[in-house]
Amino acid sequence: MSSKGKKRVVLPTRPEPPSVEQILKDIRSTQPSDPMFVLIAESSKDLPAPRKKEESEVKSERLYQQSHSYVEMNQRLQTACSLLKEKCEELKQAGATLEQNIVEIKEKAL
């Protein structure tokens, strides 16, 4: 049988998503034995215990200092790159001038 002979199934329209109030009501009415809560509790057992506040602050400060250092170094590299491009152009111009002077001297010598 060809595909043209088959009837196309019309799916029902998608329902509207629940409102915030409906979601909150649903969460509040769930039981602690709800599979989702059981899964969350089981998966949290596999996670490392939360660290002390001081440890997380030290880590945050270290990450901030690394990021700050990276940004400063990136800015210095961009400045150096711009300076190198300028110097490169100056050298190209000096080389062209030198080539022109060499040609003029050769012409005068002949």
UniProtKB/TrEMBL annotation:
Membership in a protein family: Belongs to the UPF0449 family.
Keywords in alphabetical order: Coiled coil
Matching Pfam families: UPF0449
Alphabetical list of InterPro entries matching this protein: UPF0449
Biased composition (Basic and acidic residues): 43-62
Protein name per UniProt: Kynurenine--oxoglutarate transaminase 3
Coiled-coil region: 74-108
Top-rank taxon, per record: Eukaryota
